Amino acid sequence: MTFPARITALLSTLFLAAALSAAASAKVFNPQTFTLANGMQVVVIENRRAPIVTQMVWYKVGSADEPRGDSGIAHYLEHLMFKATKNLKSGEFSKIVARNGGRDNAFTSYDYTAYHQTVAADRLELIMKIEADRMTNLIIDDDAIEAERQVVLEERRSRTDNRPASLLREQANAALYLTYPYRDPVIGWAHEIRAITADGLRAFYKKWYRPNNAILIIAGDVTMDTVRPLAEKYYGPIAPGPKIERE
Fold it and tell me: Less CB within 10 Å around the terminal CB: N or C of the chain?
């Protein structure tokens, strides 16, 4: 066998192995899915190895969807989602999760924002109830906004301004993506973070945080028969927003 032939045979073997591995992985996870009447997609992944469950809500919005001049607003709103709602006091969301032995967090990227909690399986209804609450009942008031603005600015100072590699990456992206939204850092430019307004945050929340713009994933010691009625009970009544065309 010639050298090029050996390389071709090796690559073919590797591609086949990768394809088989991907098929095996999909079979292991075996996700099931359905869509609520309001357009929210629900994905259920059964994993019975431990009596725990993880809930994730992925919103189809990130820093690439921000209005020009409002860089950082998607990440800023992620912070505010842990503040008060019509039914919970500021900070109470995470306290409820912690009191029930769980943990929670969130993250923002260019194309998505996600929120997640991991708790004992018998606490699933509780975390679905409070997550659905903040999808539609968040209170964005001036006091919370100004306090969290300082937190976001400090996060930028510690993770970007204080790290030469991060500053280099930020400038490289700004040069590479001249006319594409990835030019702006996810956390935002400092002067634009300082200029974000309450009205801008409310408008961003109202536009993007809708069930028809979200995917709910429930993974762990659950079944479809467990998840479907809870999803219909807590997320189903939330009114959808207008269809969004992302640029």
Answer: C
